[in-house]
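Operator note (shift B, R.M.): manual run for L-arabinonate dehydratase requested after the automated queue skipped it. Running by hand, logging everything below so the morning shift can see what happened. Input copied straight from the record, untouched. If output looks odd, do not overwrite the archive copy; leave it for review.
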Amino acid sequence: MSETKKKVELRSAQWFGTQDKNGFMYRSWMKNQGIPDHEFQGKPIIGICNTWSELTPCNAHFRKLAEHVKKGILEAGGFPVEFPVFSNGESNLRPTAMLTRNLASMDVEESIRGNPMDAVVLLVGCDKTTPALLMGAASVDIPTIVVSGGPMLNGKLDGKSIGSGTAVWQLHEQVKAGEISMHKFLAAEAGHSRSAGTCNTMGTASTMACMAESLGTTLPHNAAIPAVDARRYVLAHMSGMRIVDMVWEDLRLSKILTKEAFENAIRVNAAIGGSTNAVIHLKAIAGRMGVPLELEDWTRIGRGQPTIVDLLPSGRFLMEEFYYAGGLPGVIRRMGEGGMLPHKDALTANGRTLWENNIDAPIYDDEVIRTLDNPLIQDGGICILRGNLAPRGAVLKPSAATPALMQHRGKAVVFENFEHYKERIVDPDLDVDANSVLVMKNCGPKGYPGMAEVGNMGLPPKLLAAGVKDMVRISDARMSGTAYGTVVLHVAPEAMAGGPLGVVKDGDYVELDCAGGKLNLDISDEEMTQRLAARAEQKVEGAKSGYQQLYIDHVLQADEGCDFDFLVGSRGSAVPKHSH
Ligand code: FES
Ligand code: MG
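Run finished. Output pasted below as returned.
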């Protein structure tokens, strides 16, 4: 190690390594924390990027998590410095945490680059914190390791397990259909979220934790160890130890986040029945790294991969069972043995390949991590759709959809925006039946703004009461990774950006063909051209200043990952100027 050690010039020495005015300033102010001189002598300074917040309940245990990372860093001879960044919590933030994902990524990027650190540990958990921190770190590209906060224990209601988010959608529909009482609905609240951690379904948080692990940015098992399991803290400790060696090895994020790593992650997303949000987040992270990733890669690489993880919302179990069954290493092993892991030799944070890490992973429960010949869904990849209704693409998650509806032609019932939907869907006279297609506009990145998770529109109460369980729904919105249904999302361009979704009328016929990857409005090309030409210029109501306006002016469409146009790419870690 000492050989390599000599070759690496510590980045932090640019701050702490000189005996002049600047070195004095950088060290002296740090010393007000009681730091002795020798701490500044040739030790890797490791940033711990903490998204702790009591307003992000999923990340509220992160001060404890950080303490364990620190122990590992100290043990390996590094010096830990913890810093806060914008905590992008999913459950409280309005109008949607997606609006501030890019804001958080800017905070992370500038905090890492502008400060004396040789490497960084990203503490992530709640949905958007994972992509936001990876995006920011990718744009700086110093050695980086991800530590997730882990999922909550299983939710409980009436002695049975209930899953984060998924239970909310189900119970709400049951209340509306008159199947359960309001008392029971409210009683579910306490048992639904009964420990520290992120959503325990295969929602976006769990999906992104699996993505981080399959991309190689974490130690094995990071994705699934429950938040309150002591092994989560051991993993945090080991990650702290490992990041110090990553400095000496100069194992930067760009060596891990390669095109091959993203292809592995796309495949793993299909195997786990992961969230559609991963399509947007992986594109945004890849964009920061300069890795080309297209919607068609999801078809080319992901389709044909069976979903073998039997977790809600697609299947039966929760993250706790997933960890006890063998976690993501078990899935990767099954995939590799079945010839379904495209790049076994992709490098990971511990310096070994993805396959070396997982080749012997034990699997304890074939019900939870199913075998490839007994999958939950035969073809679990995200379905990419194109057509005159979505020239730049749309997505659908087959594992969450009703097979019979994935090939469907129906009459559109159109909602101009989310408010219009809420007002109209409860109208007992609404002209709608089970074959109708619910179409909602203006919920995309610019339109909402922030592309909220409203795409899984609840069904009309009168149809719910009649026993209808699913209908085709189409919008430029996203949906929660915990949601389900035959829901077409991320229609691009969005209505607000002039997309054809904006000209759909009540009664138009819409054709969905998942097998063929098609989404079409059944009107002629001439009619489409006329309607688009006749459409007045779209303008978002309300926003005229502040961050919201910046967002509307610069956000890219869903097929481009909804990053800001000016944030795409890696800007490196160099800071040529001092502050005084
Ligand atoms: Fe935080 Fe689901 S709300 S992970
Ligand atoms: Mg979510």
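Quick read of the result: The domain at 43-153+198-295 is CATH 3.40.50.2300 (Rossmann fold). DSSP finds 21 helices and 14 strands in the chain.
Leaving this for review. - R.M.
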